[in-house]
């Protein structure tokens, strides 16, 4: 392997092969036609209805908390942001479309890097947030 393309400096040492790319800059340099092709591939047209995205974690699947506690946390977030879009973690087996039927649930697995095109991201204990521009990070209890 000659090069590894990253959107940020990752957790493993591949610095001798790594080339950091700016996904936002690449996106901005694409034509409208290319934007539409990419959005169609990932079925991102439904992202237009919200400016908040919840990236979930496989807490109950990983036995870090029970399902009821996990759903209580996510329910509080969904109540606070009623038009939220939910992106399940790839390892999760829960069907969020049944748990939160009034919300959009992304049903395809894809790199979270592409979601830099979204506005506000909510994640609890997810490395995916490192893909997004730094900003205020809110703790679950509302403290910064």
The span between the termini is 41 Å
Helix/strand class: alpha/beta
**In one word, what is the shape?**
globular
For the sheet with most strands, the description reads: 4 strands, parallel
Helical percentage: 10-25%
Number of helices: 4
Instruction: Provide the low-confidence segments as ranges.
Output: 135-144
| Strand segment count | 6
Average pLDDT works out at: 76
User: How much beta, percentage-wise?
Assistant: 5-15%
State the assembly state of the protein chains: single chain
Computed CA radius of gyration, to the nearest angstrom: 16 Å
Spatial order of the strands forming the largest sheet: 5-4-3-6
Q: Topology as H/E string?
A: EEHHEHEHEE
Task: Characterize the structure shown.
24% of the residues lie in helices and 13% in strands. It contains 4 helices and 6 strands. The chain has a 4-stranded parallel beta sheet with strand order 5-4-3-6, with no helix packed on it. Strands 1-2 form a two-stranded parallel ribbon. Mean pLDDT is 76; it is low at 135-144.
Jot down its keywords.
two-stranded parallel ribbon; alpha/beta; disordered C terminus; 144 residues
Task: Summarize, please.
The chain has 144 residues and is an alpha/beta fold. 24% of the residues lie in helices and 13% in strands.
Secondary structure elements and pairings:
Blueprint: E1 4-6, E2 18-20, H1 23-28, H2 32-41, E3 52-55, H3 67-80, E4 85-87, H4 96-99, E5 104-105, E6 120-123
Parallel strand pairs: 1-2, 3-4, 3-6, 4-5
């Amino acid at each position: 392997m000659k090069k590894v393309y990253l959107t940020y400096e990752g957790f493993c040492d591949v610095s001798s092969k790594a080339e950091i790319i700016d996904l936002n800059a690449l996106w901005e340099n694409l034509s409208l036609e290319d934007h539409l092709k990419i959005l169609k591939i990932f079925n991102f047209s439904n992202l237009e209805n919200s400016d908040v995205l919840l990236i979930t974690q496989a807490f109950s699947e990983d036995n870090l908390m029970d399902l009821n506690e996990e759903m209580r946390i996510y329910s509080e977030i969904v109540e606070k942001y009623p038009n939220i879009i939910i992106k399940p973690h790839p390892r999760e087996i829960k069907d969020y479309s049944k748990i939160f039927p009034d919300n959009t649930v992304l049903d395809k697995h894809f790199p979270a890097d592409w979601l830099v095109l979204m506005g506000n991201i909510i994640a609890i204990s997810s490395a995916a947030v490192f893909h997004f521009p730094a900003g205020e990070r809110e703790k679950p209890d509302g403290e910064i």
